[in-house]
Amino acid sequence: MTKLSPHELHTLADRLAHRRRDLAARIQAGTADAGHDNLRRAGGDPGDKSAEVQQAELNLTEMENEARELRAIDQAQERVKNGTYGYCVECGRPIPYARLEAYPAAERCTECQTRHEGVRGGRDATPSL
Ligand SMILES: [Zn+2]
Description:
67% helix; elongated; binds zinc ion; 4 helices
């Protein structure tokens, strides 16, 4: 495992920026129409767990995931700036390029990520490969 080349770093930073713009737009769109309105409207009709409620709940979960990923991307961009991007935040070893390529906001190597998920008993926005 080697350090990222300037070209690889550039590619990944570019991908982070694109993904960030994408997510921000989706979150904004979701906040504008989907979530709150649907919940409020459906709340006035107790006992009927309509498709609207289910859709609203789905939207909220999705928005939470997107917001979490957005934060992960912000942190990744910080690391690009201060030169620590591509290194595991826990053990400090380089994260394999294939993993970064699949998930540019990854902050841990596969081993640490697996351990991290085990400890927390759940998944976060950083899937292990
Ligand atoms: Zn690690």
